[in-house]
Amino acid sequence: MSLTHEAALSPSAGRRFRAYTAKHLDEFTARAGLAEDERLAARAVATVLPFRVNSYVVDELIDWAAAPDDPIYRLTFPQADMLPKEDVARIADLLRKDAPKKEINQAANEVRARLNPHPAGQMDLNVPKLGPEDPLEGVQHKYAETVLFFPKQGQTCHAYCTYCFRWAQFVGEPDLKFASSEIDHLVDYLHHHPEVTSVLLTGGDPMIMGGGVLARYIEPLLKVETLESIRIGTKSLAYWPQRFVTDPDADDTLRLFEKVVASGKNLAFMAHFSHPAEMAPDLVREAVRRVRDTGAVIRTQAPLIRTINDDPTVWESMWRTHVRHGMVPYYMFVERDTGPQDYFAVPLARAYDIFRDAYKNVSGLARTVRGPSMSATPGKVCVDGVTEVGGEKLFVLRFLQARDPELVAKPFFAKYDEKATWLFDLEPGLGATHFPYETPPPADASDLVEDPAVL
């Protein structure tokens, strides 16, 4: 690995990390040109959903001359219409009256409870156990081969995306948090479950941790012989590339990556890039180079987000840029059924058109990408196309992953619905009474009556 810095970096490259939170929000929304009532509405939304941004995003990524319409601004700053008008108005009124913090928090919690804070059963359906009555905290085991681990010290990010499906981790409510500091428990679980070949460290963002803390979580996993790969889900390349270039422990972190690769395990760096602007700074490209030099493979993914990247030219540009810099396009996700989904969601029919229009214009090296994919309760469901059979217009769907492995890669059909934004909005097609992952409905009572002629 080369630890030299080859790129001509911007003056902000070596600055220390500085985060901005809700207390700074009014200053930035004023800079974006919002009127006083609009700024109050943004504060009301930030009372319900988390807000955090940092100096790199503010100084290097946001085009303030285009704000509030700039895509990176919309990606990181709350919008008044992300929540129902009546909820925003209620909380804005409390803020205007300088109501007690307890009253404001109570109102915010009531709104959060209606936003499906833990989609796909992540607080119960996916949680494994060390024993019959001993749930493994901070661990999800949804698919046989893959376990997700949420390090306790990684339950924040360098900046929060407004669409984030893990928003509940960041709002300061203990009942909504999902994390663990017990890596030994995970290792014990892996020894008892050799079918698990991949561990994903997620959060939050594991790369918010210092190199020493990160090593305490990763190094014990290197001793699990049945483990083939370690994944790190992160937005750090986009939101704080300094983490791999100029931060004090950048080199130590990269040496840890080298250690993983030298152990014979694949290190997959699952990088979230939501817009081409995030790849523009030289600092990002230098960070990508340094990570790749360790032997890690960078795979890129993002959800399709209305008002931010719902344009095939945006995705084509992203995928081309990622391939040019040695990264592997991996997933286009459908915005999940949580938080402000109604604001950001793109109908599945439109999502498929965007994916196809971008996909058809890139080379085979970028066609490693899969999508549009829904990470729903029964598994990852991909919209493979739209077709017509016997005069019925249909979505062609396929499980990329499933709780029931027998469902993987088997196509199934749903009635075409131009307004549907999620799997559970769809109905079975071709006369089916249920989808393959559903329990068949009980037979009609009339079907159970014996033929009188036989009596």
UniProtKB/TrEMBL annotation:
Q: Does the keyword Transcription apply?
A: no
List, separated by semicolons, the cofactors it needs.
pyridoxal 5'-phosphate
Gene Ontology molecular functions: 4 iron, 4 sulfur cluster binding; catalytic activity; metal ion binding
Please tell me whether the keyword GTP-binding is annotated for this protein. Answer: no
Q: Which UniProt keywords apply?
A: 4Fe-4S, Iron, Iron-sulfur, Metal-binding, Pyridoxal phosphate, S-adenosyl-L-methionine
- Source superkingdom: Bacteria
What the entry lists under PANTHER family is as follows: L-LYSINE 2,3-AMINOMUTASE AQ_1632-RELATED, LYSINE 2,3-AMINOMUTASE-RELATED
- Name this protein carries in UniProt: KamA family protein
The organism is Spinactinospora alkalitolerans
Query: What lineage does the source organism belong to?
Result: Bacteria, Bacillati, Actinomycetota, Actinomycetes, Streptosporangiales
